[in-house]
Amino acid sequence: MTTQEIPEQLLDGYADILVRAAATGRRLTREELASRRELGAQAANAGYAWRVLIREHLNATRVHRPATGDPDHLLATAEQAIDAFAEGYERAQRQVVRQEEAARRELIDDLLYGRGDLGRLAARVERYGLRLSHAHAVAVAEGPSAYDETDPVPRDVESELIARFGDRHILLTTKDGRLVCIAPADQTDVLAYFAKRAHAATDGGRIAVGRPQPGAAGIAQSYEEAVSTLELATRMGFDEPVLHAADLLVFPVLARDRQALVELVLNTLGPLDEARGGAEPLVETLVAYFDTGCVAAKAARHLSLSVRALTYRLERIRTLTGSDPADPLDRYTLQTAVIGARLLGWPGTAL
């Protein structure tokens, strides 16, 4: 932007202020200060660079300085006028930033929740590099703290993504205290790198990746899958740092018919409540047994039990439920019921 591109009205009245106020050294009046603030706001809203505006004020000060008078008075007058101009400029800029942040947050909410007119949404997200005609996948990372876009963690992760991939039509944001990365479905390297950097930046946080889906509604669906996967990992006690919704489809299938799942859990594992100490120790035994591939020695070590104690528990389970964990058919029923119990939070939660 050149000097000639700045309209004269942005300096309107400045020469008169210099002449009148600098001659006596008086402070600017309330009306004079208000006029400077208003012009500063106009300059900000018009998008003029602050450096250029300062240069023009200094040029005007040199051109319109009174022939007589104290130079200190001139500088004091110019300082007051420019300071008021800067106040109006900064106030308008903060307002613009707040409006842009609100618009961006509204856009993110509409995108992740699948709200609003799809055609208008597509036009709005283009400024962030997304093309809703393509399929996208969403990765969500959560750590020990809740994050927003002013925190250093999301800013650092975004800087690393940009440094690595440049303009790859990636959108990084935060939602409900989590980091969210939206990337084209065919750029799996982006989400893999996001998962790696987010895991490190969140001090070992967990990341879930939704399945690729087409269109604006697909982004919302992929996001919902990623969030649900994080919640599932917490309920099931998964310790993997990165989880893919595509690898865990069996769990939402099981949870889809909650009443049937409750009946399976209670009919299969309910009798364990009759054991001394209740059902919880025996359910934990089954969890460890299945998680270690039904190897008694490994399960015993995991539970800090002797193999003999573990074998006794398995026998007790067989006696109470009528299902033998060592029998392939019974094992399938028991394992499915155990998965259901973990999904439902049983026996800690009443069904």
UniProtKB/TrEMBL annotation:
Domain PucR C-terminal helix-turn-helix positions: 282-338
InterPro entries: CdaR-like_regulators, CdaR_GGDEF, PucR_C-HTH_dom, PucR_C-HTH_sf
Coiled-coil intervals: none
Domain CdaR GGDEF-like as annotated: residue spans: 115-232
PANTHER family: CARBOHYDRATE DIACID REGULATOR, DNA-BINDING TRANSCRIPTIONAL ACTIVATOR ADER
Similarity comment: family membership: Belongs to the CdaR family.
Listed name of the protein: PucR family transcriptional regulator
Native source organism of the sequence: Streptomyces longisporoflavus
